[in-house]
Specification:
- This protein is α/β, with parallel strands linked by helices.
- Helix 9 links the parallel strand 11 and strand 12.
- Helix 1 crosses helix 12, helix 5 crosses helix 6 and helix 5 crosses helix 10.
- The chain has twelve helices and twelve strands.
- The protein has a six-stranded mixed beta sheet, with helices on both faces. It has a six-stranded parallel beta sheet with strand order 9-8-7-10-11-12, with helices on both faces.
- It folds into two domains: about 120 residues, Leucine Dehydrogenase, chain A, domain 1 (Rossmann fold), CATH 3.40.50; about 140 residues, 3-Layer(aba) Sandwich (Rossmann fold), CATH 3.40.50.720.
- It starts with 7 loop residues before the first strand and ends with a helix.
- Helix content is about 35%, strand content about 20%.
- It binds NADP nicotinamide-adenine-dinucleotide phosphate.
- NADP nicotinamide-adenine-dinucleotide phosphate binds next to helix 6 and helix 10.
Length: about 280
């Protein structure tokens, strides 16, 4: 890879037009005066491997990978980082001389968002409740365990998916039936919605929060709308809340560092640029 080429990176998905990452990277590149580009690439699953292998020769230093390719990104890698291996999926690929390196920065972004937006919060403060057992939940569980959560109560509409995650992530995970989720909120320090409930166009969020302690920190991965029904209901109970946009911004930091050689900051200006 020539050092004289304009550095390129991008995001691969199908669809990709809705992605906010190009706006995020353009903001950081502009703010830091870096002559690089970050490009959205709509690639269908059947073309993924061929497209990714062609990118380094085109000047790409790496790519972010979003739905539906996170598993394929993990499988195409020559080198897999620890957290990607634990999560079983990748969202950040870096092209190096010795091949494709895979990382998963979703859990990192999740925890960094809470650390920045809720000063004083620690995963070790007490038990956590995680709603949902899809792809995003895997990254959240890994990050909460890594950050010291003593116990995680995991609940999902389809119980078998939660049980599969408990098997994968070990004894800190306690599976709670979806019908018993409201009672599971008692005594928790951290509550995370990783389901699509409450997202624009998805089913409404209607979980009873009446046992939620006032001291709990509540966060939602859904960020359309930014202020979700769960966050509004949690604030009405006196809880601190953190929206999901920050996770998206923080998960992009490691890729930017590797591809463009500088560390971007997540600030109010970053949020404003992405919300545009
Ligand atoms: P996914 O793998 O499709 O999982 C969806 C989850 O939502 C499953 O647990 C599913 O339960 C649950 N769900 C869907 N409809 C439901 C309903 N009517 N009642 C109860 N549960 C329901 O999706 P994902 O990739 O994990 O993403 C989940 C959410 O996180 C999405 O809104 C996504 O936009 C958001 N997200 C945000 C960020 C960020 O940076 N902020 C990053 C990643 C994802 P079943 O297993 O029973 O179907």
């Amino acid at each position: 890879m020539s050092a004289h080429r304009i550095p390129l990176a991008g995001v691969i998905g199908a669809p990709i037009a809705h992605s906010r990452s190009p706006r995020l990277f353009a903001h950081w590149l502009g703010a830091m005066g870096i002559a690089g580009h970050y490009i959205p690439l709509h690639i269908e699953p059947a073309d993924f491997a061929q497209a990714v292998r062609a990118l380094p020769r085109m000047g790409f230093r790496g790519i972010n990978v979003t739905l539906p390719h996170k598993l394929a990104a993990f499988e195409i890698a020559d080198h897999i980082g620890d957290r990607a291996r634990r999560i079983g999926a990748a969202n950040t690929l870096t092209f190096r001389e010795d091949g494709i390196h895979a990382d998963n920065t979703d859990g990192y972004g999740f925890v960094e968002n809470l650390r920045q937006s809720a000063p004083g919060w620690s995963a070790a403060d007490g038990p956590a409740v995680v709603l949902g057992a899809g792809g995003a939940a895997r990254a959240v569980l890994d990050a909460l365990i890594d950050a010291g959560a003593p116990e995680i109560r995991l609940t999902n509409r389809t119980r078998a998916r939660a049980e599969a995650l408990a098997d994968a992530f070990g004894p800190k995970i306690r599976v709670i039936d979806w019908s018993e989720a409201p009672e599971a909120l008692a005594g928790t320090a951290t509550v995370v919605n990783t389901t699509s409930l409450g997202m624009d166009g998805a089913d409404p969020f209607d979980l009873d929060l009446s046992t939620l302690p006032r001291a709990a920190l509540v966060t939602d991965l859904v960020y359309t709308p930014l202020d979700t029904p769960m966050l509004i209901a949690a604030r009405a109970r006196g809880c601190r809340t953190v929206d999901g946009l920050g996770m998206l911004l923080h998960q992009a930091v490691p890729g930017f560092e590797r591809w463009f050689g500088a560390t971007p900051e997540v600030t109010e200006a970053t949020r404003a640029a992405v919300l545009g």
